[in-house]
Amino acid sequence: MKTLLNLLIIAALTSTSAFADLKVKAGPRRGLLMDLGTSQAEFFVEKDRSISFALYDAAMKPQPVTGEVITATAETPGGKTKIEFEKKGDLLVSKTPLPEGVGYQVVVQAKASPEAKPKNFRIKLQLHTCEKCGNPEYACTCDE
Ligand SMILES: [Zn+2]
Fold first, then answer.
1. 129 alpha carbon to ligand 1 midpoint, in Å?
2. Measured in angstroms, how far is the CA atom of residue 20 from the centroid of ligand 1?
3. Distance CA 66, CA 34 (A)
4. 122 with 88: CB under 8 angstroms?
5. What is residue 3's predicted lDDT score, i.e. its pLDDT?
6. Domains of the chain, CATH where assigned
7. What span, in angstroms and rounded, lies between the C-alpha atoms of 104 and 98?
8. Rounded to the nearest whole angstrom, what is the distance from the C-alpha of residue 115 to the centroid of ligand 1?
9. What does the alpha-carbon distance between residue 73 and residue 98 come to, in Å, rounded to a whole number?
10. Cα 140 to middle of ligand 1, angstroms
11. What residues in the chain have per-residue pLDDT under 50?
12. How much is the pTM?
């Protein structure tokens, strides 16, 4: 019980830090999985540099967009660009493509429902494919 309590305290402490701990997990589309608590969102950069999110339940069963709210900010050397998303079928797709270039940070703010506490995820945008795991570099799982 004491261990559980300690774990809960650690969890509480870590969740107060601005960014959620990102242990890299890749989804079925080889995108980066983000744990939103009650659902998981898979960050994926399309060929046209738009971002799309597919959603899954805890057992990784695909699910439709039920109220997830996602925004992103591209932090390029030239400044910050806010990216908004809209529902397209079962995906949340960015209304605008990512700014040009690679190597900059993309901060994703996501919540499982409009009332949920937002979670922040920081991604270093590298779009080449990792030769070892075959995932795009932003979803590379090799460092586990
Ligand atoms: Zn890899």
1. 8
2. 21
3. 16
4. no
5. 59
6. 24-139 (2.60.40)
7. 11
8. 35
9. 9
10. 4
11. 13-18
12. 0.83
